[in-house]
Specification:
single chain, about 260 residues, alpha+beta, Ribosomal Protein S5, domain 2, six-stranded mixed beta sheet, four-stranded antiparallel beta sheet, 5 helices, elongated
């Protein structure tokens, strides 16, 4: 018997909507709770920093590598930050090998925007000498997908950066077996992603909830400021809804920041 995936998705969507009509979710969470979060650092031996994050069944691995580069012309006394993402085919039946998909590009840009806008990495500390600075490459690998890549990726990238050691630079050589200290991190940013389904709004959507949602919004904050907002899909959010979700995001930031700090050795 051949399974009709469209029919299966319709059944799942109807089930999600029936639950939400009763203010229930498929995993029994309340509307504004994250799934369980676990963080394991130092997962990639040859990286300067790395972290694997499980957000429920969504798993993202982040690796950080520092490369010696020339500074950008408009910032001659700074290093640079580059975030990229790869959706591995083993993570989901919808992911394929090849060039970065629009989903992968959006994922990387949303994570990058939060970290960059919050000035998390001290780019001036990456400057070495005239014409030489470090570029921090953050690579995100989705190992398993069950909804909400953005928040899992933001946590993984932030955790990997906090785990990063800068290689020693001496006599015009990079000595990766030695370090000159930890990467200088000036701020911690986290994000909260919300899905809207039939006028119900919920935090940290699962894959089934994402497939059923009309609109999506991701808000990145530090302790005091909104640093980035990304709106997705066609459904809209009222100005009051956005302001209420910003308040939720600030509250969740303290929770996520505590988890991040606890994971650091």
């Amino acid at each position: 018997m051949v399974l009709n995936m469209d029919a299966i998705n319709i059944v799942k969507t109807n089930y999600i909507k029936e639950l939400l009509a009763k203010n229930e979710r498929e995993d029994m969470r309340d509307m504004m709770s994250f799934r369980a979060i676990s963080i394991d650092n130092g997962m990639i031996k040859n990286a300067e920093g790395s972290s694997q994050v499980d957000l429920g069944a969504t798993r993202v691995l982040a690796g950080v590598k520092l490369q010696l580069d020339e500074p950008m012309e408009d910032t001659p006394n700074q290093g640079n930050l580059v975030v990229s993402a790869e959706l591995l085919p083993l993570a989901s039946a919808d992911y394929e090998s090849g060039p970065p998909s629009p989903v992968a590009i959006e994922f990387a840009r949303v994570v990058d925007r939060g970290i960059r806008a919050a000035n998390c990495v001290n780019l001036e500390s990456l400057f070495i000498e005239e014409g030489k600075s470090w570029t921090v490459y953050v690579d995100l690998y989705v190992l398993n997908y069950n909804g909400n890549l953005f928040d899992a990726g933001e946590i993984a990238a932030m955790s990997a950066l906090l785990d990063t050691r800068v290689p020693k630079y001496e006599d015009e050589k990079v000595i990766r077996e030695e370090t000159s200290g930890k990467l200088k991190i000036d701020n911690i940013v986290t994000s909260a992603t919300f899905a809207k389904i039939d006028n119900k709004i919920l935090l940290d959507p699962t894959e089934n909830e994402e497939n059923a949602c009309d609109g999506r919004i991701t808000i990145a904050t530090d302790k005091e400021n909104v640093r980035a907002i990304q709106k997705g899909l066609r459904g809209g959010f009222s100005s009051k809804e956005v302001m209420d979700l910003i308040d939720v995001t600030f509250n969740k930031h303290e929770e996520l920041k505590g988890i991040l700090k606890k994971s650091q050795k």
